Amino acid sequence: MLQTAARRAGLYGAVAAGGFRRYATYGTATAAGVFTNTVFGFILAYTYIALWDERPGLGGYDQSQALTFMWASQALLSAGALIGGGFQEEFQERVRTGDIAVDLYRPADLQMWWLAADLGRAAFQLLGRGVVPLVVGALAFDLALPADPVRWLLFLVSVVLGLVVGFALRYLLGLAAFWLMDGAGINMMATVVSIFFSGMLLPLTVFPGGFGEFVRLLPWAAMLQVPLDVLLGEGAGAGSAAGALGFQAAWALALLGLGRVLQSAATHKVVVQGG
Description:
By secondary structure, this protein is mostly helical. It is 78% helix and 0% strand. It is built from twelve helices and no strands. The chain has helices at 2-24, 27-54, 63-77, 88-97, 100-105, 110-140, 149-180, 184-197, 209-215, 219-223, 225-232, 238-273. Helix 2 runs antiparallel to helix 3, helix 2 crosses helix 6 and helix 4 (88-97) runs parallel beside helix 7 (149-180). It is globular and about 55 Å long. Mean pLDDT is 90; it is low at 271-275.
C-alpha cells in the first residue's frame, strides 16, 4: 500500500513538474505578463491611495495595508487564474472533441491529474509573474509586509489552499461541458463572479452589513481575500490563522467532493453515449 501511494505521489509530482515546465517555455508571454501586472499595479495603487485618502480606515485597513493587499493580489492574479488562464478551457475542449476519453483511460485519477497539472501551472505563475510586481510595489510604496517568517509560512499555506479552492471551482466548470458542450458563456460568468467576490476588485471587507458577511463566507473569498488577510495578520493570532486555513480547507474538501460526484455522473454519461 505504501509503495502504491508512493508511486501515485511520484506520478502526480511528475505531472505537476510537467505543468510547471510547460508554462516556463512561454518566456515572452511571461515577460509581457509581468510588465502588464506591474503597470496595472501602479494604476491601482494610486487609485487606492486616492480612495484611502478620502476614506481612511476603509474596510479595516490603513493605507499601507490597502496597498499591500493590492500588490499582493497582483502577485496572485495569474497563479489563481482569477481572470482566466486556467485549465478549464482546455478541459472543455477535450470534452467537446472526445479526447477526454484518453484521459479517462490513463492509470490515474482524472481529478487528481488535472489538479497536479494546475498546481504546476500556478507554481510557475506565482514565481514567474507574481514575485516581480510585489517586489516593485514594495520598492515604490510603503507596504505593510510582515517581518515574521511564520506569517509568511502561513501565507504560503493559505495560498496553496486558495489555489486548490480555485481549481475545484474551475473543475466544476470543466465538467459542465459534458452537458453544455460549449463552456464560453459559463466561463465568462464565472470570471465576473470571481473578480467581484474574490476581493480582486476591492477587499471584501469594504462591503457593508449582511451582504459583506455573506460574500466573505463564499468560496471565492478563500481564493484571494483570506490569503491576503493571513499575510496582513488581520485578526492577528494563531487561532485566527487556524480559522482562516480551516475555512479554506473546508471549502476545498466540499468543492472537490462535489467535483467527484459530478465526475462520476459525467463519466457515466460518456459510457451511455458510447464515448
